[in-house]
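Question thread 4412

I'm putting together a teaching handout and wanted feedback from people who do this every day. The idea is simple: show students a protein as raw sequence, then show them the structure tokens that encode its fold, then repeat with a second protein so they can compare. Below is the first pair exactly as I plan to print it.
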Amino acid sequence: MNTPTTHIDTASRQLTLMDLLDARENRVRHQKELLNAYPGAVLVSMTLNIPGPVKDSLRYRKALEAGIHRLKAMLAGRCDSECSCTTILHEEFRPLATGPEAYLVVQGEPLDIKKAAISVEEGSALGRLFDLDVLIPGENFPQSISRSRLGAAPRRCLLCEEDAKACARSHAHTMDQLLEKVNEILSDAGL
């Protein structure tokens, strides 16, 4: 007799501040490695904006995978527009306890790639959860192409549409309110 198996999401665990700081340091180190391995290329580093101490789950991983597919489709579509073509040289997905990370090394114009990234972030409710950093080599650390460089508005809060960083600094919303909105977005996206 076959017994049904139940998948338990063991990836979810509460993280400490030190876990998150170590993850950020490791991410920057990996970004530098990728930029050094592909001279002249642009790096897109993708994570999720998930509040709270739990940063990884199967739903979060599926959300990031959906974001990767959207970005790749957007980059492929650049060849059909007035923007320059892009070629993906390297793709990587890392399911980490500190939150899933994805990396695309792209040959193309950095500003065009940033436009595509902004389109993915703003193109849907699910896109609001994506954090796509477009990076080029810097003197000591990878240099990020900012939204403001393209005249794009700062990221908006999930709940009130104010500047997301200002809401985070002022603790304008509770963790429960933010997580409820994240779960709603994921459910609406079928995740």
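The second pair follows. I'd like the answer to focus on this one:
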Amino acid sequence: MKKKALPNLYIALIMLFLYAPMAVMIVMSFNGTSSTSVLSGFSLKWYGELLNDRVTLQALSNTLILAITSSILALIIGTLAAVGINAMRKKWVKNAVLTVTNIPMMNPEIVTGVSMMLLFVFVGHMVSSRDVLGFPTLLIAHVTFNLPYVILSVLPKLKQTDKHLGEAAQDLGCTPLSAFFKVILPNISSGIITGFIMAFTLSLDDFIISYFVSGPKFQTLPIVIFSMTKKKVKPDMYALSTLIFVTVLVLLIIMNVMQARAEKKQKAIKQVK
């Protein structure tokens, strides 16, 4: 019993350390006053205030538009890149490409943000444009740091897929393109959905890179919240953060359920073979 109690206590302490701030935020989002330390009754006041905060809602809209657009583009480019990497025959070439692909993921975000800002400003100077920073630069930056995660999500599914499925589909009359969409794509769909959800959550959360490549006309929610910290964060931010936390939690649960189903499917196929 003592051997089991110690690991359970260790896990409980880790969970408490990770999720205690989230629990406090959720509780305070229902606070009747603007206090961050005293709970004065249960109220939905700040959820109502959130609906009337035009600046925050505009920033949220910008963030969602950016996250969805960048995730879709990263998903398309990343899936095609994963297919290309999986088709490479020379091992050293494949390893070199994977190493280069993983650099944006391993590189510190502040380095990526500063380097991209310098690149965009340089390009803007070349085309004689002063207001180069905005939605296009944010989109390019978000697609860039999302790509490695999409590739790493799709590539294992491609490796698990039988290499001869595409050839068999072509023997039965499919073109290479139709064979990919009708046979290969359904087999890697769980990896594609996982990559999309991961890219969406990363884009939704990003602050450092977005801070360097954004312009005054298009600002995301993390940047707007950061600007509030110089004075005082509005209590309706607790409500918005709670809604975002619940949304991300639901997405992660869906992702884990889909991965579990895919693993069961793979095990069932292996048992049949």
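Top answer:
Good format. For the second protein you could add a caption like this: Residues 236-272 form the longest helix (37 residues). The chain has a mean pLDDT of 82.
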